[in-house]
C-alpha cells in the first residue's frame, strides 16, 4: 500500500490544495472521486484489498472463538464489508471516515483493516494537528477494543500493545510519506522558480545587450554621420565650388563613410564576442584618451574651430575604461556643437592625475549660423550621463549665460 499510495500523492493532494507547500493544485482533480485517474483507481483498489485481507484474517480468527456466535460473526462480517466499501469515500471525507471507523472497530474487529487504511489516509493528507487528534483516538481505542472484544489466544496486555503498535506504525508511515511528498513538491517548486529566474536573467541580459548596442551605435556613428552631413551640406549649398574643394569634400565623405562602416564592424564584433564584451578592457577595439588629438584634428578638417587644451601629462597612462569614457564624452560634445552651434569655436579641456581623477570640459558659444543641420534624438547626453555614472563619475551640462553650452565631467582614475 505504501508504494502505491506514495505514487498517488499528486492526485490525492490535488483534492486538498491547502496542504501543498506552494498551494499548487492539480486542476484535473475535483476531490469528489468522480474524476479519478487510472492511478487513483489502482491505489483505491489496493487499499480496499489490504483492508479486505485484514478483515478476512480477523474473520478466520473469530471462527475459532467459542464466545462468538453465528449471528455475531455474520454481523461482524457485514460491518467489515461496509467499512471496506466506505473506503471509497476516503478522498472526500478522510477525517470523518477515519473517526467513524475507529469507533466502529471497537465493537467490530472486522473493520480494523479499513480503520487502519483510513487512519493512514489522514496521516498522509492532513496536517499534524488533525493527525494527532485522529491518531490519539485510535491509540485510546486500541486497549478498549481489546477489552470489549478480547482475543482468546492473546492476553489483554498483548492484544492492547499490538493494537497500539499497529496504529503507531500506520500513523508514522503515513506522516513519513507526507513529508517526503512535501519535500518533492518543494524541490519541484524551487526548480520552477529557478527556471523562471533564469528566464528573467536571460531577458535582462538581452535588454542590457540591446542597450549596449544602442549606446555604441550612437557613440560611434553619430560623429561620423555628422561629418558626412556637414560636407554633403557644403556641396549642396556650394555647387559652384572649385573642383579641388569638391574633390576634397568628396574624399572626406568617402573616408568618413568607410570609417563609419569600420567602426560599426568593430562594435558589432565586440558585442558578439563571448561574454558579451566583458573581459580585458584594454583589448577592446575602442578609442581611448590618447586618440583625442586625432578626434580634434578630424573635427578641424570638417571645418570646425576647435581649441584643445590637454593638460594630462601622458594620456596613455589613463586607464583604458576611463579614457574611453572621456573620449566618448568629447566626441558627443563635438557632435552636438557641430549640429546645434555650427560655426562656433569649441574649447576642449582635459586635466587630471591619479590623485584628483580626470576632468573633461567642453564649452562653445552660440552658433553663428542657423542650427538644424543634422537631426538628433536628444538621447546622446542622457547616454553620456549614464556612462559617466557607471564609470563612477559624474556629468553636468547646460546652457551658459551668453547662449552657448557647457559640458563638464569628472571620472575617477581607476587602474
Automatic annotation (TrEMBL):
Query: Which species does the entry assign this protein to?
Result: Streptomyces netropsis (Streptoverticillium netropsis)
Start and end residues of each Signal transduction histidine kinase subgroup 3 dimerisation and phosphoacceptor domain = 210-274
Protein's name in the database: histidine kinase
Annotated DUF7134 domain residues: 39-181
Q: Name the reaction it catalyses.
A: ATP + protein L-histidine = ADP + protein N-phospho-L-histidine
Keyword Nucleotide-binding attached: yes
- Name one molecular function that GO assigns to this entry: protein dimerization activity
Write down the InterPro entries for this protein, in alphabetical order. DUF7134, HATPase_C_sf, Sensor_HK_TwoCompSys, Sig_transdc_His_kin_sub3_dim/P
Q: Which UniProt keywords apply?
A: ATP-binding, Kinase, Membrane, Nucleotide-binding, Phosphoprotein, Transferase, Transmembrane, Transmembrane helix, Two-component regulatory system
Q: Which residues form a coiled coil?
A: none
Chain ranges passing through the membrane: 41-59, 71-89, 95-123, 130-148, 154-177
> What's the Enzyme Commission number for this chain?
2.7.13.3
Fetch the Gene3D superfamilies from UniProt: 1.20.5.1930, Histidine kinase-like ATPase, C-terminal domain
Q: Kinase as a keyword? A: yes
GO cellular component assignments: membrane
Amino acid at each position: 500500500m505504501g508504494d502505491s499510495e506514495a505514487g498517488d500523492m499528486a492526485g490525492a493532494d490535488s483534492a486538498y490544495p491547502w496542504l501543498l507547500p506552494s498551494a499548487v493544485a492539480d486542476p484535473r482533480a475535483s476531490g469528489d472521486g468522480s474524476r479519478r485517474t487510472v492511478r487513483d483507481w489502482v491505489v483505491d483498489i489496493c487499499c480496499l484489498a489490504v483492508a479486505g485481507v485484514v478483515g478476512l484474517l480477523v474473520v478466520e480468527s473469530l471462527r475459532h472463538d467459542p464466545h462468538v456466535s453465528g449471528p455475531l460473526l455474520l454481523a461482524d462480517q457485514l460491518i467489515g464489508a461496509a467499512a471496506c466499501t466506505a473506503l471509497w469515500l476516503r478522498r472526500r471525507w478522510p477525517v470523518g471516515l477515519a473517526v467513524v471507523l475507529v469507533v466502529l472497530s471497537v465493537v467490530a474487529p472486522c473493520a480494523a483493516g479499513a480503520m487502519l487504511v483510513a487512519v493512514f489516509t489522514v496521516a498522509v493528507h492532513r496536517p499534524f494537528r488533525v493527525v494527532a487528534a485522529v491518531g490519539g483516538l485510535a491509540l485510546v481505542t486500541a486497549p478498549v477494543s481489546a477489552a470489549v472484544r478480547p482475543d482468546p489466544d492473546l492476553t489483554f496486555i498483548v492484544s492492547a500493545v499490538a493494537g497500539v503498535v499497529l496504529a503507531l506504525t500506520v500513523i508514522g508511515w503515513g506522516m513519513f510519506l507526507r513529508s517526503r511528498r512535501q519535500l518533492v513538491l518543494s524541490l519541484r517548486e524551487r526548480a520552477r522558480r529557478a527556471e523562471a529566474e533564469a528566464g528573467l536573467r536571460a531577458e535582462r541580459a538581452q535588454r542590457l545587450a540591446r542597450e549596449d548596442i544602442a549606446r555604441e551605435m550612437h557613440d560611434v556613428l553619430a560623429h561620423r554621420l555628422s561629418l558626412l552631413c556637414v560636407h554633403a551640406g557644403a556641396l549642396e549649398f556650394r555647387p559652384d565650388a572649385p573642383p579641388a574643394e569638391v574633390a576634397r569634400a568628396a574624399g572626406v565623405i568617402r573616408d568618413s563613410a568607410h570609417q563609419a562602416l569600420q567602426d560599426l564592424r568593430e562594435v558589432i564584433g565586440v558585442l558578439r564576442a563571448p561574454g558579451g564584451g566583458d573581459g580585458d578592457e584594454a583589448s577592446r577595439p575602442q578609442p581611448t584618451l590618447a586618440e583625442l588629438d586625432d578626434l580634434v584634428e578630424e573635427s578641424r578638417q570638417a571645418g570646425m574651430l576647435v581649441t584643445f587644451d590637454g593638460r594630462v601629462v601622458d594620456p596613455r597612462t589613463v586607464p583604458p575604461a576611463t579614457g574611453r569614457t572621456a573620449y566618448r564624452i568629447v566626441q558627443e560634445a563635438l557632435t552636438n556643437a557641430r549640429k546645434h552651434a555650427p560655426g562656433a569655436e569649441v574649447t576642449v579641456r582635459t586635466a587630471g592625475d591619479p590623485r584628483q581623477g580626470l576632468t573633461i570640459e567642453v564649452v562653445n558659444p552660440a552658433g553663428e549660423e542657423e542650427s538644424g543641420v543634422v537631426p538628433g534624438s536628444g538621447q546622446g547626453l542622457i547616454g553620456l550621463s549614464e556612462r559617466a555614472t557607471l564609470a563612477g563619475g559624474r556629468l553636468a551640462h547646460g546652457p551658459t549665460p551668453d547662449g552657448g553650452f557647457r559640458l563638464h565631467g569628472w571620472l575617477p582614475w581607476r587602474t
